[in-house]
Amino acid sequence: MANESSEECYDRAREVKEFDDSKSGVKGLVDSGITTIPRFFIHPPENLTGIRSHQPVTIHIPIIDLSESYSNPRPQIVQQIGDAARELGFFQIVNHGIPVHVMDSTISAVKAFHELPTEEKKPYYDRSRKGGVSFASNNDLFRSKMASWRDSLSVESAPVPPDWERIPTICRSELLEWNRQTNKLAQVLAQLLGEGLGLRPDRLDELKCMESKTMLAHCYPHCPQPDLTLGISSHTDPAVLTILLQNELEGLQAKFGDDWIDIKPIHGALVVNIGDLLQIMSNGVYKSAEHRVVANSHKEPRITIPIFIGPTGIGNCYHYGPLPELLSEEKPALYRNFTMAEFMTDFFSKEISGLVNNYKL
């Protein structure tokens, strides 16, 4: 009877709204000294399987050297990236052309912002996405069944440049530089992934697949009960591809078969994963892998900066679906065509999960 009474008295919607209205984020909860997490952050046991697995890792994420030295010519890179995109949907890249000191300074600046006192961050807390910039805890907070233990600064840097003045001063120049540094890398990866499908190097760019860039600067603060929640729940990314910069705290896991595999950070490396759009456009040849982030049990915050790259979601001028040159009688289309307006409406209408199954024929 006590449990039934507790269920009847619990007003989740009110508690979520009070949390959001406080503009404190999960970092603010930690700073307040809490020892138990609010109920709406608690995930059911089936969502938490394997979050602290100690079984031997039998699958290793490929580490691909992008340098075009004599020992690693372009055809070999195309083969390696194509194989990783087909088999796992995840790989790490080294010698990618972005200086390590730029990566480190970007991480440090984002960490410095998230570690500001709550009162200094409150003026930035806003879900309206004005000027292409927003800061909040859980972008799907009011759509998800359970919240996750993270705060995020979001910057939509293309196709319309954001109002850079809206980005907190403490990390503005570093995020501007990180955006600039990743522009060329995104083009290179698009060419290599296209070639891995047997396409012309400029085919994805021709289809306007690289016009949109959204950068998220995540902070996963210490969680007092990390076995009860997640940093981000299981999902696939909606974009064509994602480029991830992370500090050296573990947390990212990808699902291969029935197993969750830790993707261990490597200093100087970037993680790349295939998104739902590229799985659909490749007609299932490339894999958009399910992944999640476990709640941070360390005292230091875990910092990550993913950049999601894809077509613009504005208008209905272009239709997307399996590329015609990849189809044949032996390989018919597995997915239907759609506009980006439809695709993005689907994405923003529900909690973070995945979109591939919505477009299966």
List keywords for this structure.
alpha+beta, eight-stranded mixed β-sheet, 361 residues, disordered N terminus, 10 helices
What can you see in these coordinates?
There is one protein chain. By secondary structure, the chain is an alpha+beta fold. It is about 30% helix and about 20% strand. It has helices at about 1-10, 10-20, 25-30, 75-85, 100-115, 120, 170-195, 205, 275-280, 340-345, and strands spanning about 65, 90-95, 135, 150-160, 210-220, 230-235, 240-245, 250-255, 260, 270-275, 290-295, 300-310, 320, 340. A hairpin with a 2-residue loop joins strand 8 (about 250-255) and strand 9. Helix 4 (about 75-85) packs across helix 7 (about 170-195) and helix 5 crosses helix 7 (about 170-195). The longest helix is centred in the middle third of the chain and has 28 residues, at about 170-195.
Task: Give the secondary structure arrangement, pairings included.
Layout: H1 2-9, H2 12-22, H3 25-31, E1 63-65, H4 74-87, E2 90-94, H5 100-114, H6 118-121, E3 133-136, E4 151-158, H7 169-196, H8 203-206, E5 212-220, E6 230-235, E7 241-246, E8 252-256, E9 259-262, E10 270-274, H9 276-281, E11 291-294, E12 302-310, E13 319-320, E14 338-339, H10 340-347
Parallel strand pairs: 1-2
Antiparallel strand pairs: 2-10, 3-4, 4-5, 5-12, 6-11, 7-10, 7-12, 8-9, 8-11, 13-14
Helix pairs in contact: 4-7, 5-7
